[in-house]
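I keep forgetting this: the sequence line spells out the residues, with the fold written below as integer tokens. I include a record here:
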Amino acid sequence: MDPIRNPYAPGAGQRPPELAGRDDQLGAFDVVLERIAHGRPERSLVLTGLRGVGKTVLLNALRSAAVRRGWGTGKLEARPDQGLRRPLSSALHQAVRELGHPEPAQVDQVLGVIRAFAQRDAAPGAKLRDVWNPGIEAPVVKGRADSGDIEIDLVELFSDAGGLAADVGKGVAVFIDEMQDLGPDDVSALCAACHEISQSGLPMIVVGAGLPHLPAVLSASKSYSERLFRYQRIDRLGRAEADRALAAPAAEESAAYDDDALAAMYAATGGYPYFIQAYGKAVWDVAPSSPITAADVAVAAPEAETELAVGFFGSRYERATPGEREYLRAMADAAVARAESGEDLDVIESVPTADVAAVLGKKPQSLSPARDALLKKGLIYSAERGRIAFTVPHFGRYLRDR
């Protein structure tokens, strides 16, 4: 098969040629946009799921849907070592510019508030290079979103941005990837601001994406967050959707898979979108002709697995210290032990922390530092009290293969 015509796209956040299995989410978001445009109340949206299920791709697709309706949009990626003020200010700056408000004075007023909100992050007497400069020429607006209390400031900032959008009959949407990495104060402020905007009826929403424990992070910050956001679990694709993700791009290039090849691909990928793209690319490159067969899949599998081992699994494994790697391997072994007692190894989503401690022959309390470090690095998450799970699908299999 011609590698130049290879249609598959295994990249972080890169949109696949066929966005299969996400029609329900896209349709629901269209309803949200229409309701807000007509002055109807709507909740902000939170997407959750493991790594590799396409949360970032879907987040970008939702943003595109908002742009097509003339909304002002901005996107940021949360980081554990960074506060919310500067990246959010950049996102809102872009959103305000996209609105196309006809009154420059009103636009400058909001831009001045955004600038004040961002620069409040700088320490008193900070040097000029340390003062955030977003390219906003409007003068700083004193006394608005600059109190230093992130919760108060964010409510005022969202109110002003939402009001500007309401003037032109549009909306503002802020998209936040890796939302679980926001600091506790920022999470609390974001919940409070979304609550205030919802009550005031302003056309503004937040669309967040994060790991499966994100709802617990939000709930720990504000008890009413369970009613504040609409939660959508993004999971692996079913068989029919996975087949479409492979077959539709191939058909565009006048190629096809036979039935056995599609079955082999689903068995290898488990329906995870990132794996589908990785295997699809490898199989296309080794297949001599169309239709692609199960034999082609078998030949390409080692290449796909090597690529995943280096770029998807290995890069994360290398971030762990030796002690943390020991904990990760013990998690994989604990899952095997549960499988030997009758559970299906491929569907075990989490293991008790007590089982991990038993594998290592240590007390659970002594393993807390390693577990907490892995949680902060985003390699594992707490599925529920007393249980943990990998944030990356098939990570246990990768560790066992090593």
